[in-house]
Specification:
It is a single chain. With 311 residues, the protein is mainly β. The protein is 5% helix and 43% strand. The protein is built from one helix and 26 strands. Strands 1-26-25-24 form a four-stranded antiparallel β-sheet, with no helix packed on it. Strand 3 and strand 4 form a beta hairpin.
């Protein structure tokens, strides 16, 4: 019976890996990064960020932050010696300050957002508090807008606190559906339009707000088949076009939506070869429209390029 189970699982994996592939004519696989500058493997990358000012790419892997140029040359990395212990997410403001959401550790039991200056020296930790429910708030994902406001999505928290660089709470954005506040698991800011995108994994929905905190529209439909979201984990936006990309952890795919929330296409699927994904956990869009994915279980970062630059 045990051998039959293995055969069934293997057959299912093969079926899943052939169901999506690249969206014909919409996106093409470009590159995979699997090692650092010393030839060491990138182990289970958990976060990626395309920083638009310097056009640098940040990758979180274990207890390190790797920084690459937009043509994948590694510039720098820093880790525990600089105060990086349990990184969950990273954001960078226009002045080059780096914000890293960190989970509790044995040494530092309080969850926090660590602040590093432009030469990657630790300056302080921010404990996110000053709003209802803050005693249980655990920072998970971060985003920074053009004004330097920091958006913090927490674990199992209904909404997103917005704070300044010193940690002062400015507001809490709390979308509702069916009369109930919705837990938010990821946040992205379109620096071109100022729109804020809030992703709810439980609802399989993205809520879009303007820069003044007014809700504009929402999109996404729950399900396990094509065009639908099973377990969305990350969202980001092409600031040139307003096209949004949503990463689905369980379907091993990325779904693309236009700037009104209309479904466009999807790509990916479960697999191990270049261009396929295995339980990806984060994505980002760089200034040229390339989609960069933390392909966690494949221990790599994958890069996809939209046709025509995403126009």
């Amino acid at each position: 019976m045990k051998h039959k189970t293995i055969i069934i699982v293997a057959a299912l994996s093969l079926l899943l890996s052939s169901t999506v592939a690249l969206a014909d004519g919409e996106v093409s696989y470009e590159y995979s990064r699997t090692k650092d500058e010393y030839g060491n493997r990138l182990v289970s990358p958990t976060g990626v960020l395309a920083e638009p000012v310097m056009s640098e790419i940040y990758v979180l892997s274990m207890s390190r932050v790797f920084i690459f140029t937009d043509d994948y040359y590694q510039l720098y990395s820093f880790g525990k010696g600089r105060g990086v212990e349990s990184p969950l997410s990273v954001a960078v403001d226009r002045e080059g300050y780096v914000y890293i959401a960190q989970a509790p550790t044995e040494e530092k039991r309080k969850q926090r957002v660590s602040v590093f200056n432009p030469i990657f020296q630790w300056e302080r930790d921010i404990i996110v508090k000053g709003f209802e429910g803050d005693e249980d708030f655990t920072p998970n994902r971060l985003a920074v807008d053009e004004k330097g406001r920091i958006y913090v999505a927490g674990q199992n928290f209904p909404g997103v606190p917005v704070m300044d660089r010193e940690g002062k709470i400015l507001e809490v954005i709390q979308p509702e559906e069916g009369g109930e506040k919705v837990t938010i698991d990821d946040v992205a800011v379109d620096r071109g339009s100022g729109r804020v995108y809030l992703l709810s994994t439980a609802k399989s929905r993205v809520f879009v707000f303007d820069e003044n905190g007014e809700m504009l529209f929402k999109f996404g439909q729950k399900g396990g088949s094509s065009t639908k979201l099973s377990r969305p984990m990350a969202v980001d936006v092409d600031m040139r076009t307003g096209r949004a990309y949503v990463l689905d952890y369980m379907r091993h795919t990325v779904l693309a939506y236009d700037n009104t929330g209309k479904y466009m296409f999807e790509f990916g699927g479960m697999g191990w070869s270049p261009g396929w994904l295995q339980y990806p956990i984060d994505l980002t869009v760089d200034s040229s429209g390339r989609v960069i994915i933390a392909d966690t279980f494949n221990n790599r970062v994958e890069v996809f390029k939209p046709a025509g630059g995403g126009e």
